[in-house]
Design brief:
Length: 765
């Protein structure tokens, strides 16, 4: 039918940089491979499922007034026994796999303003946008490609490109085929003379015939551009044969104009190098067998849904499986997903962090997307899993590390995830529903002057603990340590030299220790299995003996000021060198990594006592500063004026305005550091007296815990390797352990927490 909405529609096709969500719904994991396909909004290019039980496409249309959508459904082509078997992969190489030979695509335009009726095809005011959507790169791959793309710059040969002159016989009609052979794909245009040459020959004989590089060897013409990757915005894959590297051509439009090519009229038709690299990375697989080679039993179902590897995303997948295995997180985001989607006011669900948290919870716990497949031989194969692409794009937005496709630290991601959840939850019910509260507890810091023997107790909020390990060399390898030994080391007293005691009024020595003032519902523990060797972190292969049964932490509970102890004056002293007040626990943690004390103190001070992660990052970023080893002194006062925009931005998150201004001044105007401080100290602890003892039942008085999840790192280096998660479902005799290796989920009869990196202990109430 032809409806009024279609006849009067004024649509703008997406550019090459516009996210087009055509692979799956932005609010659930229904995809283009399902029977109903995915509806792509032709106005804002949001993707929505067009059928029950969710029908997010109709919901989006009614909320936005965007009635026209393009339904895209993908189906696998039938194969026959006569189909040629693909060549065996003998080395890592970049090849293009468009999927056109494996799938068929079915599309039609729908109008939700007319009850979802089909619209007549080929309308001239709609068809350009339809074709642009069909040929656009999926938004999920767009984010990944951008993250995978290496930093490409121009070179002298591109900048000094001169003497451009079309060669004899040059014609625009000749741009569709190699000038030497009959190849019509992977063609490279010489920007000096206009010669068209095919790409390099691959190891197994596929690919091109090397005529592009042969032309360079014969003429010395350095720079070529890949035809098919040119976009209307003036970008394309360029290559300098002299530098033998990918390069950027900032003047591409002018260089192509010499050959009569109008950049604005071009459409991208082939994959870029970054896209091909992404495709290759996603082909890597990991074995799911026991040490003796026996296959582990695949499982699938609610809470047993795997997460596809997006390319070095195992650190994220393993943490998410552990976190969403916690009752508080599941109950916060799974049952309420439908209510949130119906009331969310964000125009783009893909960029709404709360939408993506609900989407992920629904994907993991509904069981809708966890189905075991047949292996074709009468057996059971692993499930396909779900791809958390939109979640990763939302949680890692603008983060300088997590927004890339490089391997990252799982514990650092856990801290980042908690921070993002804190930010969005403050806008909902004043943060009362924040599932992060399950991690909250307090520590009791005890400081005693060894001169006057007086003491001070201070309560600090915390969300995790970082345990040191003891390095004891054996004839072969390193001796194992127990969890109790690590806890003893964490709570042991440390000596502080140069402490300026307010009672003694002179430099003296003090001892400091930290214990639990209260216990969380779930205790997150990092084991520091690394050391710095020549300023390079190296992994320590030390087994930590962690029991699977009940663990008591009562021996590590603080008791507050004891009979016979005399309290120090409330005004804290500073070390004799007049160094600014810093968190000595963080300083000691950095010193244990091998950093000089002066650098540790400076880093903790400059980052506003925001923790070891921020301080260590500061040290690495300022390693070459000429004054890196100059002592930090209490010098200039923090700025009295702060950026009003930063105040408004943070106050809009629900923080008190006076507290925002105070933290901004303390952080030197740095909004990110101020936010870290605002999130790390809850509002209700701002007024807590430093020496006030905490009652045993604060945040839960029980000290008995059981291991319910852990993240393990496989590999000998901290810079690479692979993360997997082990999660316990149920309790007591009904409990069962499962291993999550990206999209693969198996029963784990004998969990091995000895070499885990991050542990999750649940309190036994």
């Amino acid at each position: 039918m032809t409806c009024e909405h279609a006849l009067t529609a004024r649509l703008t096709p997406p550019s090459s940089s516009t996210p087009v969500y055509k692979e799956e719904c932005t609010q659930c994991f229904n995809s283009q491979d399902m029977a109903e396909g995915v509806d792509v909004c032709l106005s804002c290019f949001n993707g929505g499922c067009p059928s029950d039980p969710y029908n997010h496409a109709h919901q989006h249309s009614m909320k936005s007034g965007h009635y026209l959508t393009l339904n895209i459904r993908r189906s696998a082509k039938a194969t026959s026994d006569s189909d040629e078997r693909p060549a065996k992969l003998t080395k890592l190489e970049i090849r293009e796999d468009t999927g056109a030979e494996s799938f068929e695509y079915h599309t039609f335009v729908r109008c939700w303003g007319c009850s979802g009726a089909r619209v007549e095809s080929g309308l001239e005011n709609i068809e350009p946008t339809v074709q642009a959507v069909i040929h656009a790169v999926e938004a999920s791959k767009g984010h990944e490609i951008k993250a995978w793309a290496e930093e490409v710059t121009a070179c002298q040969h591109v900048s000094d490109l001169s003497g451009q002159q079309p060669r004899d016989g040059f014609s625009l009609d000749g741009l569709h085929q190699c000038s030497t052979c009959d190849k019509r794909e992977n063609l490279w245009l010489c920007l000096t003379c206009g010669n068209v040459g095919c790409g390099r020959r691959q190891y197994d004989g596929s690919g091109g015939n090397n005529h592009g590089i042969s032309h360079y060897e014969a003429t010395g013409h350095s720079v070529s551009v890949k035809l098919g990757t040119i976009t209307p915005e003036g970008t394309a894959d360029a290559y300098c044969y002299t530098c033998d590297d990918n390069k950027m051509d900032p003047h591409l439009a002018a260089h192509l104009k010499v050959f009569g090519i109008n950049v604005a009229a071009q459409q991208k038709t082939e994959k870029s190098v970054a896209e091909l690299q992404l495709d290759q990375n996603l082909k890597f697989d990991f074995s799911m067998t026991t040490a003796d080679g026996a296959k582990l039993e695949p499982v699938a179902g609610p809470g047993l849904t795997g997460l596809k590897n997006l390319g070095n995303s195992c650190y994220m997948a393993s943490v998410l499986q552990c976190v969403f295995g916690i009752d508080r997180f599941r109950d916060r985001y799974f049952p309420t997903a439908g209510d949130h989607f119906a009331t969310c006011t964000q125009a783009n669900p893909a960029q709404c962090m709360l939408c993506q948290l609900h989407k992920l919870a629904n994907g993991l716990w509904s069981g809708r997307y966890a189905t075991l497949e047949s292996d074709g031989e009468g057996g059971v194969a692993h499930q396909a899993g779900i791809a958390p692409s939109t979640f990763k794009a939302a949680v890692a937005k603008d983060h300088y590390e997590f927004s890339t496709m490089r391997q990252q630290d799982a514990f650092e991601f856990l801290l980042h995830l908690a921070k993002q959840v804190d930010v969005v939850e403050r806008s909902v019910d004043s943060g009362n529903s924040n599932p992060n509260k399950v991690f909250d507890f307090t520590t009791e810091e005890r400081l005693q002057c060894m001169g006057c023997l007086k003491v001070r107790y201070k309560v600090q909020p915390a969300r995790s603990v970082s345990l040191p390990v003891i390095k004891r060399p054996l004839d072969e390898g390193l001796a194992p340590v127990s969890l109790a030994e690590c806890l003893e080391l964490m709570t042991a007293e440390e000596t502080i030299d140069g402490y300026q005691c307010p009672e003694c009024e002179q430099p003296t020595q003090a001892v400091k220790s930290a214990r639990f003032a209260s216990f969380p519902k779930v205790l997150a523990v990092q084991v520091r299995r690394f050391e710095l060797v020549n300023w390079v972190p190296e992994k320590l292969d030390i087994a930590v003996q962690v029991p699977l049964g009940e663990v008591s932490l009562e021996a590590y509970r603080g008791r507050g000021i004891q009979p016979g102890e005399e309290a120090l004056a409330e005004t804290d002293g500073a070390p004799a060198a007049q160094q600014p007040a810093v968190d000595e626990e963080v300083v000691a943690q950095l010193e244990a990594m091998g950093f000089p004390r002066v650098r540790c103190v400076k880093a903790v001070s400059r980052t506003g006592n925001c923790g070891a992660e921020a301080a260590m990052t500061w040290i690495f970023e300022h390693m070459d500063d000429p004054d890196i080893d100059a002592p930090e002194t209490a010098g200039a006062e923090p700025p009295s004026d702060v950026n009003p925009e930063a105040v408004e931005q943070l106050a809009a998150m629900g923080f008190a305005r006076d507290r925002v201004q105070r933290e901004l001044r303390s952080a030197g105007g740095d909004a990110e550091r101020a936010l870290d401080r605002l999130l790390s100290i809850p509002d209700d602890m701002e007024s807590m007296e430093p020496a006030e003892p905490v009652a045993d039942d604060s945040m839960g008085g029980g000290s008995a815990f059981e291991l319910t999840g852990f993240v393990s790192h496989k590999g000998s280096s901290v810079h690479c390797g692979h993360y997997i998660a082990s999660v316990r479902h149920g309790s007591g005799a009904d409990s069962q352990w499962y291993m999550f290796n990206d999209s693969k989920v198996v029963v784990q009869q004998a969990p091995q927490p000895e070499h885990a990196y991050v542990y999750f202990f649940t309190r036994v109430d």
